[in-house]
Amino acid sequence: MQTSPDRHEYPAHWEADVVLRDGGTARIRPITVDDAERLVSFYEQVSDESKYYRFFAPYPRLSAKDVHRFTHHDFVDRVGLAATVGGEFIATVRYDRIGTDGTPASAPADEAEVAFLVQDAHQGRGVASALLEHIAAVARERGIRRFAAEVLPANTKMIKVFTDAGYTQKRSFEDGVVRLEFDLEPTDRSLAVQYAREHRAEARSVQRLLAPGSVAVIGAGRTPGGVGRSVLGNIRDAGFTGRLHAVNKALPEGQKELDGVPAHRSVRDIDGTVDLAVVAVPAEHVPEVVTECGEHGVQGLVVVSAGYAESGTEGRERQRALVRQARTYGMRIIGPNAFGIINTSPRVRLNASLAPETPRPGRIGLFAQSGAIGIALLSRLHRRGGGVTGVTGVSTFVSSGNRADVSGNDVLQYWYEDPDTDVVLMYLESIGNPRKFTRLARRTAAAKPLVVVQGARHAAAPQGHAVRATRLPHATVSALLRQAGVIRVDTITELVDAGLLLARQPLPAGPRVAILGNSESLGLLTYDACLAEGLRPHPPQDLTTAASAADFHTALSRALADDRCDAVIVTAIPAVGEGSVADAALADALRSAAAAAPAKPVLVVHVELGGLAEALSAAASTAPQADADNPPRTRPGSPQVTPRPTPPGEPPEDSHLIPAYPAAERAVRALAQAVTYAQWRRDAADPGKVPEYEDIDEKAAATLIDGLLARGQGLTLGTEETCDLLGHYGIHVHRALPAPTPDAAAEAARTLGYPVALKATAPHLRHRADLGGVRLDLADEEQLRRSYTELTELFGAPEELRPVVQRMAPRGVDVVVRAVIDPAAGAVLSFGLAGAASQLLGDTAHRLIPVTDKEATSLVRSIRTAPLLFGWRGSAPADTGALEELLLRLSRLVDDHPEVVAVTLEPVVVASHGLSVLGASVRLAPPPARDDLGPRTLPAY
Question: What sign does the dihedral 570-574-575-578 (CA atoms) show?
Fold first, then answer.
């Protein structure tokens, strides 16, 4: 693109798509010599006032010299970026490197002047803020550390852009001009500002899709049947409150309606705006449709058409082209290959999906990457009987299909602040940006429950999903999600089970569970299930099969009033010869007792008691009900719709509904997940702190790392270098001296002092004491030489064994500590007992770096074999305080120096007092790119 003889090639990696404050998108890219006409056209559409603010004088038009200057850049000392929509400029920013005297300069000068110009029609959309993030990132890349900007005092909008950015800055006023200077190094505040802007923009972009004022279904067939016609009918039948249009270019001339909906041959023929287009045409015709939508000002697309990345290489390229084309016009996409979206709010009532019935309005937000799983989830929440009985409603539903643009991260941003959503359920087959998902999940989970089931756990992501690779096993990813407050479940059934409880009941204050019911056997099964899930059940209270509804009410009221109880599980079997009347009476009794103590959750385990489940859930159907006061919607163009009234016999929406489960194990598992989540919420209120250690020498470590990396792009450090680097962070490794001969072993032992250990360090014997490659507690030279002979006779020559001598450490519990930087998930700290516990049983715990003091404490206690550290069966307790300090120091090392991409400390012997690090390895490499520290961008296509 850049054809002039500039000093640097065109930096294509600076191109990015961004979401703006109003939810629309824009493309940011470098300005080149080919942009002269675009620049002139853009400038002509800027008001005289904005031109005056930019140049401090009337400046009606750009001269040829100006155009040349503003389009010719060397991409080092002079850089210009433009924000574009539809290929045309809507805003520009540029910097010019300057010296200390304010004149043009080159490196090593590290300051630059920066200036913006935003078209008046696009001011207030957050364009300048996005451009500032990107131009600052470009400047840092080119060695610029500070920006200076001169602004007229009346230009308050631009002053606010700079002051709100969160950078460290200073302001001065001279000669009628405000001069702002600010450092470009990201700060905690600048990152917080960036994340807040990202949240608002992405939430707004999803809101525009889920709450449109007008919808066009493109590809609605002329004859009944087909995807487009089905979606059109579903939107109409749901009673969409906005304007609905059918579009099909094959409609006969003069046909103005289709199924009672205004019909058109093209989006261009629609009078007025179209907020959302549902695209259901063959894939080869989609580009033409996208162009028409973009030119008509459509804000977003739901593409249900198939034939994209799920179909192979050709489809993947077609999908990339689709996303690029849509973003050119500022549109976001759900799909392609999407099942659709649903919004049950009475203000919207949108069913732009292939689901024939709209779910009952409720408080659950539902996200599914798979259309088939989406159908299954909607069906389970829809059914009265079978599976989990008891119906709860949906606020919004999104099936993202191939997730080419809008992803679970975007929808989380929306649900976080959506007042109509209390619980979020997600089915994910891939996580495109685990680092961002974890950040958003932690924030969301602090406000409302987030339950996730992940498909494709043991296989590659579906073909349609473009995701970066992670080297972390699924168990590690799951552990990190749990650390972020995510309720991780394994099946769709568990997803719905947990969702029903969390949507209807308060969070338990602890693990103490009261069990009562009319079946002793069912009570005992529930008791055993509680113990298996780590809960603390009270002995079951058997009310006998003769118990009446009043007996249940009394027992439940008493249990809920007991301060030693945090939750109650009611078990019920049907009474012989009784039917729905008794079921209704029991349901009323349980509901009234639970309503009197609303702070504690109540669950019911029922056996073949459909009537009770219906009465407890108090929901006759999840579909909108038609009656005399609420007739079916027949004219979608009408602006008003009567909200669904509560049918006779149903309690109000906010009544105390009790979830019912057909099996004790399912109810108990859901309760255990709620208990764990509630504890996480309490812990998250005080996450702890990352401690400072006075003996850490961060500067010396950085100098050492820079010198080592100068040798090459990636290397594993030698023993001395490893000890030096770890030593700068107060982690001291026991010296191990090589022993290539018996005499060398004896000399090493004299240097270190007896008693010593003799170890084989060959790869197949390292850390394998069970194979006999280690001799411990050698008290003198005679024992050492004898052990040396035994090792060489058993395993081969010293050249193969690579023996070393190490001074004996105090006896204790052997553990292993690792830290790794994963390109997708970020820096992860792992801990477990050395040997079979971690290697064979996978008993390893993980935390994201940086780790706080409270997280280090929980990390040590979270493995199943943790009792071995705390005096199991009369053994001496290990010094877990020293172990936690080691974890914190290693976390600090990796967090301070992202070039440290992998560290292993093995074994670490934790004694009664102190610990000993007997082995260590460190790998250095240029750090992976941190997209969460750079400017806001959408995934590249």
Answer: positive
